Amino acid sequence: RMEGGNESRGALIVLEGLDRSGKTSQSSRLLSSLEGLGYSAELWRFPDRTTSVGQMISAYLSNESQLDDRTIHLLFSANRWEKRSLMESKLKSGTTLIVDRYSYSGVAFSSAKGLDVEWCKAPEIGLLAPDLVLYLDIPPEKAAERGGYGGERYERLEFQRKVAQCYHALRDPSWKDVNACQPIEDIERQLREIALDHVTACKIGRPLSNLWL
Ligand code: DGP
Ligand code: NA
Ligand code: NA
């Protein structure tokens, strides 16, 4: 039954991983696959640097500004909150969202600095819970070898090692690891297969829920 559109929604699919794990190129490939199969889908990313909050985050990441660790944490969270209602309406209208980074980055990167995990999770409570988190799993040393880091604040091997540990502590039932050291096409195919199962489940009518699961 499809009347009213309420029973057929898009899926919220998040890609997570260390810097240089391949999230950005795999997100685009996944978008093309879903669109090619006739699904309505969009690619989003956080931080969204186009908003005024996003511009403050961007200045911080490029070391043009200095901010207290808790202050920048809350700005990253605010940058997700400012998109929440649009996210909900897109999903309810049947559009699947592929999101390059989300609250898991928020908690992993800030708790890697030594902030308390529960404190880090608190401002994310009430954001939409992903239907699926695709974690591109790569050893920090391998990621560091990939064409070098771009020079932003967090792109240092020691720090990425801590981020990897923090990510591992955040696994929940929505989480799927994909080995990011495989050939690009193999990763693409695995992500597509896992994502399609979830897109289909959302069409059948799994309700939207809030973080944390
Ligand atoms: P990207 O645009 O995906 O390259 O992300 C920029 C950097 O910001 C990257 O090192 C990951 C980090 N990052 C992304 N989201 C968050 C967040 O919510 N909190 C913190 N502290 N860092 C984040
Ligand atoms: Na980056
Ligand atoms: Na990225």
Report on the structure:
The structure is a single chain. This protein has one domain: 3-Layer(aba) Sandwich (Rossmann fold), CATH 3.40.50.300. Helix content is 46%, strand content 13%. A five-stranded parallel β-sheet has the order 2-3-1-4-5, sandwiched between helices. Helix 2 packs antiparallel against helix 3 and helix 5 crosses helix 8. The radius of gyration is 17 Å and the shape is globular. It starts with 11 loop residues before the first strand and ends in a 9-residue tail after the last helix. The N terminus is likely disordered. The protein binds 2'-deoxyguanosine-5'-monophosphate and sodium ion (2 copies). The site of 2'-deoxyguanosine-5'-monophosphate has 13 residues, from helix 3 and helix 5.
Summarize the structure.
This protein is 46% helix and 13% strand.
Order of helices and strands: EHEHHHEHHEHHEH
Q: What's the name of the CATH homologous superfamily?
A: P-loop containing nucleotide triphosphate hydrolases
Mean pLDDT: 95
Percentage of residues assigned to helices: 40-55%
Counting helices, strands and paired strands, the structural category is: alpha/beta
